[in-house]
Task: inverse folding
């Protein structure tokens, strides 16, 4: 127990706060400042970025290795595993998205495996890596990137950009604007009702903008909320001393489900949003 | 919990990873999978064709065996018929031969009989003549009655 043993005077509140603090870096007065960046919009969460890129590279390394050696007649065990994942993603995407796109299936694969790997960091006991980091002189270390709202938001913003891109690609800019303004109430086009048209268009625009913006927001907050809550419960369990062992095990087993499910939901919703964006009405 | 530049960093990282996946990971593996699918489909089709040709060959073999059996039966039938014919021929020949032999024997017997009869007739007439001579030696000249005696002998 790093809490009671190692740090002596640390209270439970401090322990939790310490675990939820990112390792941050920012420019202050033309110098790199570490961990004094609260509220600075130019700061970077080094630990989140490090682990997310590391896990992204792990994904790329595993799958690229399998792809380079991919053969149709003698698949290795790694290739078989990678193929299982890919066929699973491919069938999930094909069930939803019926158009032809070179991007959506690889996007779904990347999201699923990457988010899965990032969520999976949650299963590493909460003190291990921060303790090693502490010994190496790193004061804060938040291991699970998806418990950082910046990470989930970053991903959902990338998805949002793709949603806008696909909407404009299939419907044109005019179609995109029409979708935002002529729904759900069609404004009158002639007669006395013409006076009301600007109000209806404004109403539609507000409604549809919220609906559009809610997509990336809900996508990121769902993943963040689930993982953050899961991580917090792991931290709380870690405060219990020796009783944490059975509890930790139980919660970890349950968390395996959440880890996979959240990765799958994030992927599936991305595919659904992009399907809606690229569908002709 | 603050929103900061990590957001942009993560977005860029994600787009890069997605691009890499789209370019270098998805296509080769998908190709391998699809290639294998076609190979499996082809293999199954080939197996199907093999099975079909095997069935065909089996049917042909059965047909050939059937033909051979039929031919054998025909040949056997023909042989039987021929044998029967030969036996019948033999029988007919035998009967003919027997009849011929019987006829020959009969004619021989007849000839023998006739000869014996002639002989007997001659002897009888000779005896008759001899007895008549003996009788007539006492009463008549045999020379004078010879014509009557020979006529008598002819009538016998």
Result:
């Amino acid at each position: 127990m790093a809490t009671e043993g190692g740090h002596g005077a640390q209270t439970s509140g401090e322990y939790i706060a310490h675990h939820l603090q990112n390792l941050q870096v920012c420019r202050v007065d033309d110098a790199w400042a570490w961990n004094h960046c609260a509220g600075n919009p130019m700061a970077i969460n080094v630990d989140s970025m490090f682990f997310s890129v590391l896990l992204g590279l792990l994904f790329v390394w595993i799958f690229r290795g399998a792809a380079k050696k991919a053969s149709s007649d003698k698949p290795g065990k790694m290739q078989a595993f990678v193929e299982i994942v890919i066929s699973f993603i491919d069938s999930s995407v094909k069930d939803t998205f019926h158009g032809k796109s070179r991007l959506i299936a690889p996007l779904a694969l990347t999201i699923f495996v990457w988010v899965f790997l990032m969520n999976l960091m949650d299963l590493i006991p909460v003190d291990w890596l921060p303790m090693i980091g502490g010994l190496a002189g790193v004061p804060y270390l938040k291991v699970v990137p998806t418990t950082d709202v910046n990470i989930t938001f970053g991903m959902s913003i990338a998805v949002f950009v793709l949603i806008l891109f696909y909407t404009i690609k299939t419907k044109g800019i005019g179609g995109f604007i029409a979708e935002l303004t002529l729904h759900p109430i069609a404004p009158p086009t002639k007669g006395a009702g013409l006076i009301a048209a600007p109000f209806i268009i404004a109403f539609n625009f507000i409604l549809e903008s919220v609906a559009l913006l809610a997509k990336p927001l809900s996508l990121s907050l769902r993943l963040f909320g689930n993982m953050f809550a899961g991580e917090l419960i792991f931290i709380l369990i870690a405060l219990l001393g020796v009783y944490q062992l059975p509890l930790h095990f139980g919660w970890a087993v349950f968390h395996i489900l959440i880890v996979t499910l959240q990765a799958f939901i994030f992927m599936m919703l991305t595919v659904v949003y992009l399907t809606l964006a690229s569908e002709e009405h | 919990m603050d929103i900061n530049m990590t957001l942009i960093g993560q977005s860029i990282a994600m787009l890069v990873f997605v691009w890499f996946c789209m370019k270098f990971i998805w296509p080769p593996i998908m190709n391998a999978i699809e290639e294998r699918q076609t190979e499996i489909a082809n293999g199954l089709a080939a197996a199907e064709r093999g099975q079909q040709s095997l069935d065909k060959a089996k049917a042909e073999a059965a047909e050939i065996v059937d033909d051979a059996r039929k031919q054998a039966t025909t040949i056997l039938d023909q042989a039987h018929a021929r044998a029967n014919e030969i036996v019948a021929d033999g029988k007919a020949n035998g009967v003919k031969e027997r009849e011929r032999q019987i006829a020959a024997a009969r004619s021989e017997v007849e000839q023998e009989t006739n000869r014996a009869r002639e002989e007997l007739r001659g002897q009888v007439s000779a005896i008759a003549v001899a007895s008549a001579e003996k009788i007539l030696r006492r009463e008549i000249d045999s020379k004078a009655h010879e014509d009557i005696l020979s006529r008598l002998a002819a009538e016998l």
